């Protein structure tokens, strides 16, 4: 073997040895994701400290946002409210539902014996003015929305109308309102080389009011922080850890496939990767 060939052989062997000894990227699981990290951050908000001395356990209470009149499924709001409501129920409080979608579902159960099919008007119909509202009400009757149902039209400034529905649902005795002042995650350099400190914060302004009189029983800011250490190279993975959903073919809905499909690869049955044509 020539000296040059021997040199390249030794160099290649050294590179392979180094590659074999180099540690791989750390394994990241969904339990470490930023989503679950934020859930644990929200769990640190101690609502019981506000309520325990002011609200009897059997009193009816509801949780509402001060920033929006309508409930929302926006992930930001949903994650906060889901955890706060979970904590209130776990602490034994009588919590009333105020999610708009669920309220419609429960109003449909008003009758003691029969299910009432409900079709609610959209915002454009409700916001119509004057006689247009009265004319539109016949359309609600035709769709089964208000048939045999108690309803009151309340007129306000500029003749805008509000449709008030009497329901079978209980009214709240106390209203627990919140405003999101700060919420999120920041990363800082970790205590050890190659690590990062993940720092979560949720800061809320909270007000507790007597629903009958409007008297404020409490107003103040609540804060929760959560911290852990993660590998620095995993920061991007943790921030983008989402599962993808793969639906079934559903041939009766989508229609049966008629085109020719071939899997190009070593095996069409095993776990081998192949290219779909």
List keywords for this structure.
flat; two-stranded antiparallel ribbon; alpha/beta; 277 residues; 9 helices; 9 strands; 29% helix
Structure characterization notes:
The chain is of the alpha/beta class. Helices cover 29% and strands 25% of the residues. The protein is built from nine helices and nine strands. The chain has helices at residues 3-21, 34-42, 48-51, 75-90, 100-107, 123-126, 131-142, 235-239, 251-254; strands at residues 60-65, 94-95, 151-155, 161-165, 174-189, 195-210, 216-231, 263-264, 275-276. The strands form three sheets. Strands 2-1-5-6-7 form a five-stranded mixed β-sheet, with helices on one face. It has a two-stranded antiparallel sheet with strand order 3-4. A hairpin with a 5-residue loop joins strand 6 and strand 7. The protein is flat. The model is unreliable at 15-22 and 124-149 (pLDDT under 50).
Distance between the termini: 48 Å
Strand content: 25-35%
Structural shape:
flat
The helix/strand order is HHHEHEHHHEEEEEHHEE
Task: Output the radius of gyration.
Answer: 29 Å
Average pLDDT across residues? 78
Summary, kept brief:
The chain has helices at 3-21, 34-42, 48-51, 75-90, 100-107, 123-126, 131-142, 235-239, 251-254, and strands spanning 60-65, 94-95, 151-155, 161-165, 174-189, 195-210, 216-231, 263-264, 275-276. The chain has 277 residues and is an alpha/beta fold. The longest helix is centred in the first third of the chain and has 19 residues, at 3-21.
